[in-house]
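Please check this.
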Amino acid sequence: MMDCVFCQIVAGKIPSTVLYQDEDVLAFRDINPLAPTHVLIIPKKHIPSLADITDDEAPLMGRMAGVANRLAREAGVSESGYRLVVSSGEDGGQIVPHLHMHLLGGRKLSARLC
């Protein structure tokens, strides 16, 4: 899906500050951070949203969470706390139609989610 901005980042056509990469997962800094630590963790494979993940792909969410935990430790926010956010679909607040997880930390985050 070369019209997908995250697929273009995976392909190296759009520059990003890559913090982690393996054969299945890519993590990079958000260009419009909402917190001092704001990292996007994505599957390299195009999956439109969490609602589209298959049973076979479900372990990928665990891998993404593991990457988030590693990056939270590296950023020094694992002890103070951080938030992982996965939005699914337009009504869920998903802007880019490619499954992704936000790692947010580095400041006190609001407990209010709605």
In short: The chain is about 20% helix and 20% strand. The longest strand covers residues 37-43. Helices lie at 5-10, 59-75.
